[in-house]
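Tokens for chain A. Residues wanted.
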């Protein structure tokens, strides 16, 4: 339970870092980042598998590159649902989704190192 809360806070900090780095992405505060991290997680759990299966032929044709488009769209969809989390275009959404994926991999890999 503690490990999950720590990872949730780390995902929120990752979103704040992305907002500082990428122009066009804005988060109003830490609480908004926590809510956005939760919404991104829920969207990835509930909607991403369905979208991935429906777009499988396009994904095969593009050798998996269409997954970037799916991640970008779901990242932007999460911003649509969270007040205070704003993405100002396609390019910031693409860069933000790529950075969030990389940071999520690092956070999930380091989750084994948290001694809780």
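Reply:
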């Amino acid at each position: 339970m503690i490990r999950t809360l720590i990872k949730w806070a780390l995902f929120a900090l990752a979103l704040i870092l992305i907002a500082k780095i990428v122009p066009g992405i804005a988060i109003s505060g830490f609480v908004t980042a926590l809510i956005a991290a939760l919404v991104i997680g829920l969207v990835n759990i509930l909607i991403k598998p369905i979208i991935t299966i429906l777009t499988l032929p396009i994904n095969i044709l593009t050798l998996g590159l269409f997954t970037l488009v799916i991640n970008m769209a779901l990242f932007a969809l999460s911003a649509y649902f969270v007040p205070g989390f704003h993405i100002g275009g396609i390019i910031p959404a693409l860069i933000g989704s790529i950075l969030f994926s990389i940071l999520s991999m690092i956070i999930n890999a380091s989750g084994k190192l948290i001694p809780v």
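DSSP finds six helices and two strands in the chain. The radius of gyration is 14 Å.
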